[in-house]
Amino acid sequence: MARPTNPVLRLRTVTLIEGVSFLLLLCIAMPLKYLADLPAAVKIVGWLHGLLFIAVCAALVHTTIAARWPLTRAALVLVAALLPFGPFVMDRQMKRFAQEFDERAAAAAAAAITATTTT
What is the pTM of this model? Predict the structure, then answer.
């Protein structure tokens, strides 16, 4: 029986990339728009950030279902994604969530093996 891939690791990766895009938007693209009169920077980085935020939302829904997360945990991750440094602050907790998923998957696999060998 193959162990399921860890959706929390995928979510963690996407949230970190989205966090970087948010900081690029705020710290580079916005100043270029208003100080150097280059609105194309916001258009390009804004689109990228928007797509990445949609990817975060999709990965969060998938992770919430696959990992059977409580809605409060999903809400915490979503709020962190809305804040400029939120994904980076949340990263340590995301590592714990990923480890928790792996431990639960390993326990479920061991229980399945035990159940098939005893019958």
Answer: 0.88
Q: Which residues contact 62 (CB under 8 A, 6 or more apart)?
A: 7, 10, 11
Judge whether 3 and 105 are in contact, CB under 8 Å: yes
In three-state secondary structure terms, 53 is helix
Query: Are the C-beta atoms of 60 and 11 separated by less than 8 Å?
Result: yes
pLDDT in tens, 44-54: 999 999 999 99
Give the N- to C-terminal CA distance of the chain in Å, as an integer: 17
Give 81's contacts (C-beta < 8 A, 6+ positions apart).
15, 18, 19, 53, 56, 60, 87
pLDDT, averaged per 10 consecutive residues of the chain (119 residues), comes to 78 97 97 96 96 98 96 97 96 96 89 75
